[in-house]
Amino acid sequence: MIARKTSPPGGVWGLSNPSDDGRYAAATVNETGDVAIVDLASGQYRPLGIARSDGSNGYASMTALSPDGTAVAVCWWVADKGELHVVRSDGTGHRVLIDSAADVAAYQWSRDGSLILAVITDTEGANTVALVAAADGAVRPVHKLPDGEFPELMTLSPDARYVAYDYPQTPLSRDRDVFILDTHTGQQWPLAAAPGNDTAPLWAPDGRAILFFSDRSRAFSAWMVPMANGRPAGEPRLVKDDVGREWPRGFTRNGALHYMLWAGFAEVYVAAINGTASVSPEPISPRQALSNFYPRWSPDGRFIAYRSERRGEGSRAELWVYDTTTQREERVATEQALGLPFGWSPDSQRILAAGPDDGRVYAVDRASGDTRLVAKTERRAHWLPEGIVFATPKGVVLQDAASNRAIRSVDFSDAGITAFGIGLDGRTAMALWKTGRVTLRDVVSGTAREWHDPGVTRMDFHAMAPQGSAVAYTGFGKDPIGDWVSLKVSSGTGDPRELLRGRGAERIVLAGWTPDGMNLLVMRWTQSPPDSPAPTRSTTLWRVPVGGGAPVSTGITMEALRDVSIHPDGRRIAFNVGFKNAEEWVLENLLAR
Q: How much of the chain, in percent, has pLDDT values that exceed 90?
């Protein structure tokens, strides 16, 4: 076996399966949401031009390339629903095959390019495996999936007679089994059930075997089962041990496996910041998780909610809680796949969390895992004693946590507004106008204040002081010397005061106030050049005195320190460190006997 690393271009994400010759893949353009054809040999990509520049007609969330590389099936997300589109690889022939479903996930084309294997979600939330005719969008339902789950990977046999897919062993299980599905009869049977997690089945190009990935030998490894007429023709055999956090893209015609490999990891740390000397940070989940993200303290200061990845391929997000009293962590057993936690209910019993990638926000019971949809949004959300606050594309809403009834709405749709956002504590919303005017609205009371900050072209996070008399924020601008970022404080009258300024590649991110209102916590680092062969982001957490004086380092400097959550007592913090980076690889001769 020979493994080689490839160099796909930056600016795109979510590479599809490769074309038969291994030259091309499809992907989504980061900036626009458009579909692109990626040349894996040259490292270049070409957008196909089906997305509008302002994003008003939606974006691609998943792609599948036809075996000959001439067409792309596109899962298109627009107006809170999924559609299935197809477009030729030269950008012509764009058509909508399905536009009436709640969601569509396209997995693979048939060998002859006539069918697209997909899962279609109806308006009731039921998922059905189906074959969709690429010519006219005719749908042939094959099998209704239970429990509202999606296969992580699903592939067609070369003759399109059988489907191999993975699915949870039980509704709340993190482990999956691989099943074979007959597209003619709808019958199914297990491939090679065993304790552990079996996932990502791929038919060999000749249809005589299925490759899948499993931790049945403890390490996440590649296994193969010989196949005949859709049935296992022998026992699984290990073909590559301990493949790491790998996720397959697909085979080429000659059997080369294209795959993504997660390199590096992210971890959640806890540290004390009281006094002038900080306690050394400690990870909350050493050696257990593949990556942890987005820590959020509970209001009572006992728990930390965070997103965790525990699977061998490191893809599926789970919601976990760390108990600082017992120093134990536990998964919140939800049927709904969840992304980052936004915050907690005031009684520290429920967690406000985002869906995986669908713009929805849920309230999750920490103990039972009961999940309830509370909002459809794509931005930040907070849980206040008065209700749940979340942003929409046009404003900010405060709604009753029990009934989901809107209590107050703040409209930021005026064409003169360049940007708006919710404060770090959720109680305020700030808007920047093209004229340099800044408006701050209290979401609960509806009161407003405003001031001018000429020269600011963009704003980042803002936070109200504990006493509510001042607001801190970061603004960005440009002058004859170059780009700058500034940490400022406004009391609502007069000009804002600048506390700290960075220039060029220096970055400043506001984390919040100390409880006494005397200092701000900020993260500072210098951005590496984009073409740096080994980019780094050594970040330091600083205290910035609000009354004046030089910033003071907390003594905490770590790689990619970010997402700081301040304990209610102000003496401890939880934060993220490190990045999980995706690398693209090709493994040749994996199928050789």
A: 68
For 252-402, strand residue ranges (E) read 257-263, 267-272, 282-283, 291-297, 303-309, 318-323, 328-331, 341-344, 350-354, 360-365, 371-376, 381-384, 387-392, 395-399
Residue type at 153?
L
Which pLDDT value is given to residue 521? 96
Q: Specify the pLDDT at position 274.
A: 73
What count of other Cβ atoms lies within 10 Å of the Cβ of residue 299? 15
In tens, the pLDDT along 133-165 reads 999 999 999 999 987 788 999 999 999 999 999
427's tokens: 């109680």
Rounded (5°) CA angle 353-420-10? 70
> How large is the average pLDDT for residues 51-70?
88
For 517-578, where are the E strands, in sequence order?
Answer: 519-526, 538-545, 552-559, 562-566, 572-577
Residue 102 and residue 321: Cα distance in Å, rounded? 31
- Using CA atoms of 346, 348, 350, 354 in order, give the dihedral in degrees to the nearest 10: 80
CB atoms within 10 A of CB 307: 25
Closest CA to 311 of 290, 287, 340, 295: 290
Predicted confidence (pLDDT) at residue 552 exceeds the cutoff of 80: yes
What is the structure's pLDDT at 468? 76
Q: Are 36 and 12 spatial neighbours (Cβ–Cβ below 8 Å)?
A: yes
* Residue 143 vs residues 130, 153, 158, 182, 511: alpha-carbon distances, Å: 7, 15, 19, 9, 49
| 286 contact partners, CB below 8 Å, separation of at least 6 | none
Which positions ≥6 away from 544 have C-beta within 8 Å?
A: 487, 499, 500, 519, 520, 521, 522, 551
Q: What is the length of the chain?
A: 593
Q: Calculate the CA dihedral of residues 29, 31, 34, 36 and round it to 10 degrees.
A: -30
The enclosing H or E element of 398 equals: strand 395-399
Classify residue 8 by its DSSP letter. Answer: P
Q: Which of 118, 12, 129 is nearest to 60 (CA)?
A: 12
The span from the first CA to the last CA of the chain, in angstroms, equals: 11
Per-residue b/e over 153-175, b at no fewer than 16 CB within 10 Å?
Answer: bbbbbbebebbbbbbbeeeeeeb
Cα angle for residues 43, 47, 53 (degrees, 5° grid): 135
Q: Taking the CA of residue 21 as centre, how many other CA atoms within 13 Å lie in the half-sphere pointing to its CB?
A: 8
Whole-angstrom Cα distance, residue 143 to residue 164? Answer: 12
Are the C-beta atoms of residues 64 and 16 closer than 8 Å to each other? yes
What are 531's two structure tokens? Answer: 């073409």
Q: 51 φ, ψ to 5°?
A: -100, 140
Structure tokens at 379: 């931005």
Closest by CA to 375, choosing from 409, 329, 417, is 409
Task: Give the distance, in angstroms, between the CA of residue 454 and the centroid of all CA atoms in the same chain.
Answer: 35
Sign of the four-CA dihedral 542, 544, 550, 554:
negative
Residue 314 has pLDDT above 50, yes or no: no
Higher-confidence position of 65 and 193: 65
What average pLDDT score do residues 355-368 get? Answer: 83
| pTM of the full structure | 0.75
DSSP character at residue 410: E
As a whole number, the mean pLDDT across the chain is 90
